[in-house]
Amino acid sequence: MNGQKSIINNSSALDSSALDSSALLIAGTDTDAGKTALTTALAAYLFKVYPRLKVGIMKPIQSGMGDRDLYLRLFDLDQSPEETTPLYFQAPLAPPVAAAKEGLDIDLGKAWQGLSALARRKSFILIEALGGLGSPITPELTVADLARDWRIPTVLVVPVKLGAIGQAVANVALARQAGVRLKGIVLNCLRPTSETEIAELAPRDLIESLTNVPICGILPHFSDTADLDAIAAAVSDLDLEIIMPIGCRV
Fold it and tell me: I need a surface site. Which of 20, 44, 86, 130 has the fewest CB within 10 A?
């Protein structure tokens, strides 16, 4: 934890407090929780509703193919692959394991400098985390540590499935213990899901009561991830005032 704080303190390129109203970290309870779906949806919404807003997307660390390539294909970001993902490893494994397989170190300073550079060119940045809040990014640090030390407002994606309640409670507890600035929760449907199923698998009132964190809404399952208009329309049903900093509304 101290190592990550020193990265920020030694970086003159960007004061992390500047990210209060210009960035949002999309974290999840686990791998495949729906972080990419929510990041894509929020980006589609911002590009449609605020066409003059300079939106950036970043995944600081990626192991294996996937999200970076999707974002660069779906959106006109004016970003290079390196700007989008400063740290990339070939194997689809936890970063410490993937880096070890390639004989590489995980230089979080490079990721922070990449975010600093992107923040100079963009008005608002969506930052997708990896794995869950408890997933390791180095042998000493988790995603929750990164979220805390980068001081970025965070939204937690909870997948609608059996076990959603426990996952939400555990991840919110971890966020509180680590000092993450958790703004809200978004429930994500991994497949077409009825209102009855949602109420049974991820009851909103119960999760809010157990976590004391507001649920901003439910993201439906998108059968066509390239239909950005439909995706943006679905996002408008979320309570964005909770999770989207006011500074991004232009």
Answer: 20
Beta-bridged to residue 178, according to DSSP, are none
Cβ count near 87 (within 10 Å): 22
pTM strictly above 0.70: yes
Query: Do residues 190 and 34 make contact, with C-beta atoms less than 8 angstroms apart?
Result: yes
Give me the catalytic one of 5, 35, 54, 59. Answer: 59
Of 124, 149, 152, whose CA–CA distance to 138 is shortest? 149
How far is Cα 210 from Cα 204, in angstroms, rounded to an integer?
10
Is it the case that residue 249 has pLDDT exceeding 60?
A: no
Catalytic residue list contains 122: no
pLDDT > 80? residue 175 = yes
Alpha carbons 175 and 194: distance in angstroms, whole number: 29
- Sheet arrangement for strand 23-28: 55-58, 124-128, 23-28, 154-159, 182-188, 215-219
Q: What is the residue whose two structure tokens read 């490893």?
A: 89
Could you tell me if 46 and 124 are in contact, meaning their C-beta atoms sit under 8 angstroms apart? yes
* Residue 7, Cβ density class (10 Å: 0-12 exposed, 13-18 middle, ≥19 buried): buried
Which residue carries 């993937």 as its tokens?
Answer: 98
Mean pLDDT of 123-131: 94
Task: Say if residues 181 and 153 touch (Cβ distance below 8 Å).
Answer: yes
